[in-house]
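Students often ask why inverse folding is considered easier than folding. One informal answer: many sequences map to the same fold, so there is more than one right answer. In these notes we will look at a single instance of the problem. The structure comes first.
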């Protein structure tokens, strides 16, 4: 990823949110997404990369 400028700071994520959703829309967005809260344990054990699940 190309980034222009010199005022950027990259950080490691410190919080993990629980999100529930019903499915995908035809254009690749989440359907009926809702925020459930922050995870109690921030261990990254059940964090998923959703890019492979998006329908084309």
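Output (designed amino acids):
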């Amino acid at each position: 990823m190309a980034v222009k400028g010199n005022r950027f700071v990259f950080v490691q994520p410190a919080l993990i949110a629980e999100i529930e959703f019903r499915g995908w829309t035809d254009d690749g967005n989440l359907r009926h997404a809702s925020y459930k809260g922050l995870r109690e344990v921030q261990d990254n054990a059940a964090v998923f990369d959703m890019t492979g699940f998006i329908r084309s």
